[in-house]
Amino acid sequence: MQDVTEEKLSEDFREAFRHHPGGIAIIAATGAEGPVGMTASSVASVSVTPTTVLFSLMRTSRSAVAVLEADRLSVNLVHAGHVRLARDFATRGAPRFTPEQNWDRLEDGTPVLADAAAVLIGHVTRTVELGEAVVVIAEITEVRRGEPGTGMVYRDRTFHGLGTDSALE
């Protein structure tokens, strides 16, 4: 194997994953200063017993710190009808949790997206710090299913819809 600089390896790694589509979710919680949230394409199911997901956050993000400190969080699985919302929650300083975005609150204040394809409600059980990221493992204690809508993925720095005609078989 040839020697590769860390910078080159990071660049190649980023480019490889740029072309690998990821499903979109908005991770939300209530922090000390109110509701926080961010768009994530790193959400994955881990286990159905116990019901567990994992996702990664940037350690330096204020929203990430609040999510990690919250008692509960929501993983809002979104569809193509939420592309603007996904962009807003991926953009620093963009409007969040506005009335037109259709957020509800649980009794404890945890934000949940009323028209999400599904909302997974749970709590952080474990974290692993790796470089600039924190891998979060969360146990899901409630699932709210909505209308699935047209699926949405993030690929090549763009959101893409996955309609029923996108099936390959």
Automatic annotation (TrEMBL):
<dbReference type="Pfam" id="PF01613">
    <property type="entry name" value="Flavin_Reduct"/>
</dbReference>
<keyword id="KW-0560">Oxidoreductase</keyword>
<dbReference type="InterPro" id="IPR012349">
    <property type="entry name" value="Split_barrel_FMN-bd"/>
</dbReference>
<dbReference type="InterPro" id="IPR050268">
    <property type="entry name" value="NADH-dep_flavin_reductase"/>
</dbReference>
<feature type="domain" description="Flavin reductase like">
    <location>
        <begin position="17"/>
        <end position="161"/>
    </location>
</feature>
<dbReference type="InterPro" id="IPR002563">
    <property type="entry name" value="Flavin_Rdtase-like_dom"/>
</dbReference>
<protein>
    <submittedName>
        <fullName>Flavin reductase family protein</fullName>
    </submittedName>
</protein>
